# Entry
Amino acid sequence: MSIETGNQKFDSPYKPIRSFKDLKVYQNTYEAALMVMTKIVPKLPDDERFSLKKQLSNACKSIPALISEGYAKKHQKKHFQKYLDDAMGECNEMVTHLSFCRDLYYHLLEEGICEKLIEVYDISGRQLYNLSKKWKDFKEK
# Structure
């Protein structure tokens, strides 16, 4: 899986957005969710099944879902805005949950995986904020 982080440069210009799948923030959060579900959740202890595992599972999957559902309502500025705000909140939640994983269960997880995912969710939250602001500015023009 190749998730784009802030350290990478773009070799080609951005492509037109024709679908929510064209949004880089959607692509990155979807791939990050796959990593969380395959490389973190299964490695956590069973006593976290109803706590951290459930929180991670729900939050990571909700971000790309909120982006895709919100995109369907992009013509309704207020509704699209709410979905983007909710997705930003979920990104922040993922940073917190992944920090717990890193600090409590570092010995069970692949080295550096939490830091990489924390960076992805931090960047994604900022991308969602910027998308929200740009969309608002665009719709007002």
Q: What stands out?
A: Residues 77-105 form the longest helix (29 residues).
